[in-house]
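worker-3 :: picked 5-methylthioadenosine/S-adenosylhomocysteine deaminase
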Amino acid sequence: MSAAPLDLLLLPTWLVPVEPAGVVLHEHGLGIRDGRIALIAPRTEALKQPALEVRELPGRLLAPGLVNAHGHAAMTLFRGLADDLPLMTWLQDHIWPAESKWVDEAFIRDGTELAIAEQLKGGITCFSDMYFFPAAASELVHKSGIRAQITVPVLDFPIPGARDADEALRKGLELFDDLKHHPRLTVAFGPHAPYTVSDDKLENIRVLAEELDAGIHMHVQETAFEVQQSLEQHGVRPLARLARLGLLGPRFQAVHMTQVDDDDLAMLVESNSSVIHCPESNLKLASGFCPVERLWQAGVNVAIGTDGAASNNDLDLLGETRTAALLAKAVAGSATALDAHRALRMATLNGARALGLDEQIGSLEIGKAADLVAFDLSGLAQQPVYDPVSQLIYASSRACVEHVWVAGKTLLDNGQLTRLDEQRIIANARAWGARIAGRA
Ligand SMILES: CSC[C@H]1O[C@@H](n2cnc3c(O)ncnc32)[C@H](O)[C@@H]1O
Ligand SMILES: [Zn+2]
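worker-3 :: tokens ->
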């Protein structure tokens, strides 16, 4: 019995599978059936397969969709609200007061939709969200067709949507239950940071995460001040405290890690934890520099995230990856640090691995979900093309993102969102901006 026809056959000039590492396939086709990658073959072979639709992509590079491994989606509505400030002033004097005044379910819906639209237009097919009202954010993920890890926010103090940590966890457990069979949504725990979550709550989270085999996503060692404060209050560095509480492990996602000493490195390696690097947020808040090359060479899985739009100020993962590649060289004092191919791997497969999704997404392999992005490398400023991955990382912007598919569904077609109304999203964001700025 012959196989059913492909739903879609894509014929790009370059196909970058990411796994195996460093490979660029010229003039190959990728076939999709039932939302999964069903075929990767030289163009002439691929064209022999019956397909319901064939799409020529000349001058385009087809790659796995980008994975934004850390962000606060609805903070798009606070973009530019408090710039040019150090982390704790930014957070305590500006962002937390604004959040307690403005963040409700409607804010989360409009801000998350704006974030999803911006991310899809930038080639992101999967993002991690650490923000309030996670059930409302999940609804937008469901509706838009994108893929996401939604985290359950936990802090020692009241937050929008939960009077205390117990209520946040109770609602979070309901979300785990509601979404346990969802094809594109996973839920993880999101304790904010070692300085805002006490030991008893972290212990609770460890037990629940073990029971549910769930990820734990947390800001860790974002600044030298945080490390100093932990030494004074707990007698150990934050990561050592988390290790003592049993939180580290393959499902632990340590966001930022600008401070890494030899003991921290050994703990990350031994526990097989992931680090999520957010270079532009770290630069803008002057938080410090994550030693990406040192972590990578030691065998730590390093992924990349934009952080929220209030500290970046965009959700542009391609731009973030370029910043990471350049910064890694300066930090390591070596021009060979984080080369373009490894930078792309960090933005795809490593992100998938950090979120526990590397069996499903992150590379172009038969059987994986068809989460893909086609970049247009035919522009003037990208010529000539010697190495398309180098051109993508060092000479392209997110404006070259042309098409995006998630689980085989077209979510961006010729730069146009297929399921979201861009003009309505812009109008909603403007209305929030006017309200927050006191003009409405
Ligand atoms: C439940 S976590 C959401 C919480 O985190 C705040 N936040 C955003 N960016 C950062 C950052 O870089 N470090 C620490 N905290 C951050 C956000 O405003 C929410 O209050
Ligand atoms: Zn963050």
